[in-house]
Amino acid sequence: MAVFALLVSLSVVVVTGLLSAGEEGPSGPLAAVFGMDLAEAHELSFRVLQGLVVLHLIGVAVTSLASRDNLVLAMITGGKRRPKNDPAIDAQPASGAALLAAVLLSGAAALALMTMPHPIGGDSGGESTQIERGEIDQDDERD
Q1: DSSP state of 114
Q2: 72: number of CA atoms within 13 Å, CB side?
Q3: Distances (CA, A) of 42 to 9, 19, 20
Q4: How far apart are CA 35 and CA 119, in angstroms?
Q5: How many Cα atoms within 13 Å fall on the side-chain side of residue 39?
């Protein structure tokens, strides 16, 4: 259940980040497309994610100490000692095709997001963006 909460929280952070219109920092690539500003929700969801990560780490440490089992090593290697009288069946590794599909899909999504035009002014910090942020006076530009 805790891992599910971490995954949901991470998903919320990603989605709100994509839809955040930053006032001082960069904007999410989908903020202008959908006309939404979820910067405050993004900040709040990130703080929730940080709290869940801390609770998860505390839980792993307490459980590792209580069970005298190295859970961190099990998370990294995917293997864990099991008592001999445990009737559980070993999990089967995922297929290479599933891994390839996941890598290609996430790469395509990242490429699509990176090639989108900048949400303000269509560039990455040029003159029109500076005018919109009020860094350059529009009257000075006309002289």
Answers
A1: H
A2: 9
A3: 10, 9, 7
A4: 10
A5: 13
For the chain, how far is it from start to end, CA to CA, in angstroms? 63
Give the Cα separation of 4 and 7 in Å (integer): 5
pTM: 0.56
The pLDDT of residue 90 is above 50: yes
- Asked if 116 and 123 touch (Cβ cutoff 8 Å), the reply is no
Confidence of residue 126 (pLDDT cuts 50, 70, 90): very low
Residue 92: the pLDDT is 72
CA angle at residue 80 from 97 to 82, to 5 degrees?
Answer: 120
Q: Are 9 and 45 in contact (CB under 8 A)?
A: yes
Residue 107 and residue 75: Cα distance in Å, rounded? 25
CA-CA-CA-CA torsion sign (45, 114, 112, 132): positive
Please determine, for residue 36, whether its predicted confidence score (pLDDT) is greater than 70: yes
